[in-house]
From TrEMBL, chain A:
GO molecular function, one term: ATP binding
Family indicated by similarity: Belongs to the ABC transporter superfamily.
Name used for this protein in its record: ABC transporter ATP-binding protein
Chief localization: membrane
Membrane topology reported for the UniProt record: Peripheral membrane protein
Subcellular location: Cell inner membrane
Superkingdom of the source species: Bacteria
ABC transporter domain segment(s): 4-254
Keywords: ATP-binding, Cell membrane, Membrane, Nucleotide-binding, Transport
Gene source species: Pseudorhizobium endolithicum
Entries under InterPro entries matching the protein: AAA+_ATPase, ABC_Ni/Peptide_Import, ABC_transporter-like_ATP-bd, ABC_transporter-like_CS, P-loop_NTPase
From TrEMBL, chain B:
Top-level taxon of origin: Bacteria
Organism: Pseudorhizobium endolithicum
NCBIfam families registered for this protein in UniProt: PRK11308.1 (NF008453)
Record Pfam families: ABC_tran (PF00005), oligo_HPY (PF08352)
Protein name: Dipeptide ABC transporter ATP-binding protein
UniProt keyword NAD present: no
Lineage of origin: Bacteria, Pseudomonadati, Pseudomonadota, Alphaproteobacteria, Hyphomicrobiales
Membrane topology: Peripheral membrane protein
PROSITE patterns: ABC_TRANSPORTER_1 (PS00211), ABC_TRANSPORTER_2 (PS50893)
Localization terms from the record: Cell inner membrane
Record carries keyword Lyase: no
UniProt domain ABC transporter: residue ranges: 9-258
UniProt KW keywords: ATP-binding, Nucleotide-binding, Transport
PANTHER family per UniProt: DIPEPTIDE TRANSPORT ATP-BINDING PROTEIN DPPF, TRANSPORT ATP-BINDING PROTEIN
């Protein structure tokens, strides 16, 4: 049984010019202990699809799916109270902007202990001990002292580590990381990716990595889903995707990487589609 | 000054300190943002400056474009030593150097039409009539891959890639010789990034522009740069041609940087999968 299985997910938003389809019939599944990367440019619906799973979309969004199962349990129409028990405990999410996703008014210690209090019901001392252990696990120096710091007193990489610590606080079965390293320097990115991969291997979590960076995909994923304008273009294991991409869009994306440049100009995605404008629409 | 004819930009031991004011009991603190950087750049070439946030690369860009005054050091542009003291800059000097900023969402005034964005440098620096300014703006729009139909639109009507084209167009309005690009593609998607990089290469060929290209993305740097400088805590720890730096990095930090850059080639993916298999088997 897959950890998370989604069949034919569609998310629509009402706009002045009718319904806009942000996610269009996407199906995907993640196994226990697997790293799935969802790749796409901005506007490809990769984040929206995962926000729909988390139940974090505004009520104006129309979400339909044939199936949306977490550990075999239908999570399409669960009550808000039940969802609150699930989210943050069994399914956790890390967002792109680490500094923006922490509350500036509370210490990071308060924010991580809140999760432990609500989901695990630990007492004060146990919470503090666990928080220190988690901070140590994600590689924050001086964890005891760190608990009393506010987000603005830390760097972006440190804030992202706090976010990861909060996300893994309850040993989630599925972790969704939405562009976890986009705002960070390459050296910090490497540290955060290494951290995520080692935690994933150790805890056997399923990990969904949302990214637009083909390098991050190559470094982390087992399997890859490529999305474009809300549609799934291709799904393959990471090696065959890079070795032998099936869909034209994936080919175009790989050709646009500066390291794959041939001659003195880069191939652009639009140049790829110029010959056949419909080519982008063909699904692998 | 004995700079050869072909040198566009020479920087000698340039420094910039920022002073943090102290309080009643707190002594004031001096931050050395750039601690003595020197380099020479030939006409029509691209120098890439690489480093992590806080290493002083943007401070260097601000000094090159006269936004910030260097604390010490010399700046020689187009064979002329620049007097960077406030009030001593000539309009001619300002026209030679232009800058494109990182975030095209922040660098364009949301209440200014594109035509006015492009016309403003001409209005301030030249005596052109409004009709001439309009013609020049329309020409430039075509050159950067937009069209005259965009003249009367506002920035919010454009995508990120188009806005960056507008920012580039604005920088080129005064026919500069040196263009400082501060992370011009890091806010853009991969496919749009390719388009903007191609545009920059085309413009460099057409106008013989010299680029100082600031980036943290080594794959972009490897593609676009002739020379590379790596900065770390305000110092240039590595400086050489692209081939030298990429094939034989001297400094420890450069090697760390290379090791941290994700690799998207098939061999390294194979190696990673093999490592993972070995780890799970063990």
């Amino acid at each position: 049984m897959a950890l998370l299985q989604i069949d034919n997910l569609t998310v629509e938003f009402e706009t002045a010019s009718g319904w806009f389809r942000a996610v269009d019939g996407v199906s995907l599944s993640v196994e226990k202990g697997e790293v799935l990367a969802i790749v796409g440019e901005s506007g490809s619906g990769k984040s929206v699809a995962m926000l729909a799973v988390m139940g974090l979309l505004p009520w104006t969004a129309k979400i339909t799916a044939d199936r949306m199962l977490f550990e075999g349990r239908d999570i399409r129409n669960i009550s808000p109270a039940e969802r609150r028990k699930l989210i943050g405990k069994d399914i956790a999410m890390i967002f792109q902007e680490p500094i923006a996703s922490l509350n500036p008014c509370f210490t990071v210690g308060f924010q991580i202990e809140e999760v432990l209090r609500i989901h695990l019901g630990l007492d004060r001392q146990a919470r503090r001990a666990r928080a220190i252990e988690l901070f140590r696990q994600v590689g924050l120096p001086n964890p005891e002292e760190r608990l009393n710091h506010f987000p603005h007193q830390m760097s972006g990489g440190q804030c992202q580590r706090v976010m990861i610590a909060i996300a893994i606080a309850c040993n989630p079965k599925l972790l969704i990381a939405d562009e976890p390293t986009t705002a960070l320097d390459v050296t910090i990115q490497k540290q955060i990716l290494d951290l995520l991969m080692s935690l994933q291997a150790k805890n056997g979590m399923g990990l969904i990595m949302i990214t637009h960076d083909m390098g991050v995909v190559a470094e982390t994923a087992d399997r890859v889903v490529v999305q474009y304008k809300g549609k799934k273009m291709e799904e393959a294991d990471v090696l065959s995707l890079f070795e032998n991409p099936k869909s034209n869009y994936t080919k175009a994306l790989l050709a646009a990487l500066p390291e794959n440049a041939t001659g003195d100009r880069l191939t652009t995605v639009s140049a790829f589609f110029e010959g056949a404008p419909e080519a982008a629409e063909t699904r692998a | 000054m004995t700079t050869t004819d072909n040198t566009m930009l020479e920087v000698r031991d340039i420094k910039r300190d920022y002073e943090l004011p102290g309080g009643l009991f707190k002594p004031k603190k001096i931050i050395h943002a750039v601690k003595g950087v020197s380099f020479k750049l030939e006409r029509g070439k691209t120098l890439a400056i690489v480093g992590e946030s806080g290493c002083g690369k943007s401070t260097l860009a601000r000094m090159l474009t006269f936004i910030d005054e260097p604390t010490a050091g010399e700046l020689i542009i187009d064979g002329e030593k620049i007097d960077t003291r406030p009030g001593h800059l000539t309009a001619e000097m300002r026209q030679k150097v232009q800058i494109v900023f990182q975030n095209p969402y922040g660098s364009l005034n949301p209440r200014q039409k594109i035509g006015d964005v492009l016309g403003e440098p001409l209005l301030i620096n030249t005596k052109m009539s409004s009709a001439e300014r309009r013609d020049r703006a329309n020409e430039m729009l075509v050159k950067v891959g937009l069209g005259p139909e965009h003249y009367n639109r506002y920035p919010h009507m454009f995508s990120g890639g188009q806005r960056q084209r507008i920012a580039i167009a604005r920088a080129l309005m005064l026919n500069p010789k040196l263009l400082v690009l501060d992370e011009p593609v890091s806010a853009l998607d991969l496919s749009v990034q390719a388009q903007v990089l191609n545009l920059l290469a085309d413009l460099q060929d057409e106008f013989g522009l010299t680029y100082v290209f600031i980036s943290h993305d080594l794959s972009v740097v490897r593609y676009i740069a002739d020379e590379v400088m790596v900065m770390y805590f305000g110092e240039a720890v590595e400086y050489g041609t692209r081939e030298e730096v990429f094939s034989d990095p001297k400094h420890e930090y450069t090697r760390t940087l290379f090791a941290a850059t994700p690799r998207a080639d098939v061999e390294s993916i194979r190696a990673r999968i093999a490592r993972k298999k070995a780890a799970t088997a063990a």
